[in-house]
Write a structure and sequence with these properties.
Layout lengths: L2 H14 L7 H24 L4 H45 L13 H17 L8 H27 L6 H33 L28
Length: 228
């Protein structure tokens, strides 16, 4: 074979030979470099503090805490004011419809019931505004508001009884008394919730329980006898 033919054959063989593929060792090197890159990126990121999402979460938590702190004092004062205003009403109700189901100790009159209506109407109005807050304050405020609404419903029951004769009148008075008792239980739950929030905020115990005039099954503060 001539030199020219051999040269062409050699070139043709070289072109026809496929390029060599990376060996397992080369792939292992590529993988190691990739993992090292990830590790370096993680160290850099973790070493520079919280990312934007974490910072935003912390910021929102601070805003929520500040908002709740600003609302806690006014809500507590409102509950105390409501308790004081309702005290004489509840004492009179306990005479008209004793908590223990005993016979009434004082007759109902239109003047007395109208006085109750005025007090409860003002109390309901004071709870109409419900600014957004954290779950703790929202639950406390909702419980106080619901209790006041239940007491207002009880007053309407007492008022209705004035316009009917016996024995329906006594039945309506009894039902209104039961509504009153449910309201006192509802208030007691909200009062305990408000107490817990104040303790957690470093403000100490806040007792805004209503005077019930008997054992209503209400939650008592700090282990005191229930319903008192």
């Amino acid at each position: 074979m001539s030199r020219t033919v051999r040269s062409r054959a050699t070139k043709t063989a070289a072109w026809a030979t496929p390029p060599s593929r990376p060996t397992g060792r080369v792939w292992a090197g590529f993988l190691t470099a990739f993992l090292l890159g990830l590790a370096v990126a993680f160290l850099i990121t973790s070493g520079t503090g919280p990312d934007a999402t974490q910072r935003r979460i912390a910021e929102l938590e601070r805003e929520d805490a500040a908002r709740d702190a600003a609302q806690l004092g006014p809500l507590t004062d409102q509950a105390k004011d409501t308790r004081d205003r309702l005290a004489p009403v509840l004492a009179a109700m306990a005479q008209a419809a004793p908590v223990d189901g005993a016979a009434p100790q004082a007759p109902l009159t239109a003047d007395v019931v109208n006085g109750w209506k005025d007090v409860l109407s003002a109390a309901e109005k004071s709870y109409e505004q419900a600014p957004s807050a954290g779950n703790g304050i929202n639950v406390a405020r909702a419980g106080l508001r619901t209790a006041v609404q239940q007491l207002a419903a009880a007053v309407r029951g007492f008022e209705t009884s004035l316009g009917v004769a016996e024995p329906v009148r006594s039945t309506l008075v009894t039902l209104a008394g039961e509504q009153r008792t449910l309201a006192l239980r509802t208030w007691s739950v909200a009062a305990v919730q408000l107490d817990v929030i104040n303790i957690d905020a470093g403000r100490g115990h806040v007792h805004v329980q209503l005077s019930t005039g008997g054992d209503t099954g209400a939650i008592a503060p700090d282990g005191a006898p229930e319903g008192r």
